[in-house]
Amino acid sequence: MFSIDKNRKTVSNLPIITDNLEIIHFDEIPYLYYGTNKYGTKIIGSFIEEDEITDSLRYVHTLVDSQSFYTFINRETPYRSIIEQGKDVFIIDKNINEKPIAVYNITPDQIPSNFLPVEDYYCPKYNFSIGNDFVLSLHGSIADSHLAFPIELSTIQENFEKVINKTLEIFENLKTAPTVKQRAYAPGSFQLRFNLSFDRNDMFINQEILYNTIAKILKDLIPTKSNNLESDNDALEFIENDSLIKLIGETLQPGVIKLNDELISNTKIKFKEIVNYYKEMSSNIGNGYKEIEVLAEKRESKELLPLNLIDQTTNIKLNKITDIVDSKKHKIEVDENYMQYKVCIYSLNTETRKGKALIYSNQNDETMDKPSIIISGSDSLEKSTYTESLHLNKWIAVQAKATLKDGKFNKLNIEGE
Fold it and tell me: Tens digits of per-residue pLDDT, 234-259?
């Protein structure tokens, strides 16, 4: 084995995986895997070398944040880069029974180059069997103390339930429709659990295959780093998602339901609605939480399998996708200049300066639209006219550029005070 400075030896338990172990590549011993330590930190680990004299095995464990982890499992960042850019890298020597016998806290450059993965080695594709629980885990800000703001929590719960129900509508011709229930809160940082159950078993589709397909839909309709969205066509291709259409067809094929042109067209409409619900679900990112991790419970072990991550960058991409798709299918009108409008703000993230407001409709004085709002400027919004409207249900006059979709207020870009 390559030599390591004995002063690097540590008794830290930070690099020890205790939960959510997922072995990606196994050949007599685990070659590549990930999991979490007792504190919930994500760890990616791999086998480096074996000492045949002492029968000991050497592994490298890299502690990673959520963004790095998901770029790895989504095959966007090569494994070597994960190690080389790691701030917390450990070497773990284990005996033949996989029990740690020595732990070293090192820097990546202390690993000889020939022991590192090749530069173009990405996370392999691997199979898994999904159960019927899907989980949202909130991280950052007060969520790390197992707390959440009720109005933000309500937005997440309402829209993720819509995401699941809209996904299930793709399979609406099933003989038995599933029921969506929400389980009690679980520690997390702050976790929400949603359970899918069927009252009867006389279905046309194997439930295990169906749950795996649902998980794939939930995962792939969240844009990632590789979705650059450089053109309108990129956004339209993301929504139409031919690979998901193919998977749905394969899921339905064993039964009597055929994926015809009408079902394909309806499914793509549902994809757009799911993306829009994800956009709404993530509209409060930056205040009580910084990111939402979407996970699924594995069928046998009941451990949580990561599907995808929604953060501020994801929210920006979701907004861009929906704006482009709307512009192709709806009449969009945008004010050229700032205009005066009367609004009542009912949701506002004072950090991101985004929220929701009521405004009387242009089409009918007796109805109101609920546009999203963003307030320009950098001055604190605390104790401002906007928070006064929020807390006192007060109508206020604002200068804003409105975006109307099919004649209804969709967005207000409000000029800050």
Answer: 998 999 899 999 888 888 766 556 77
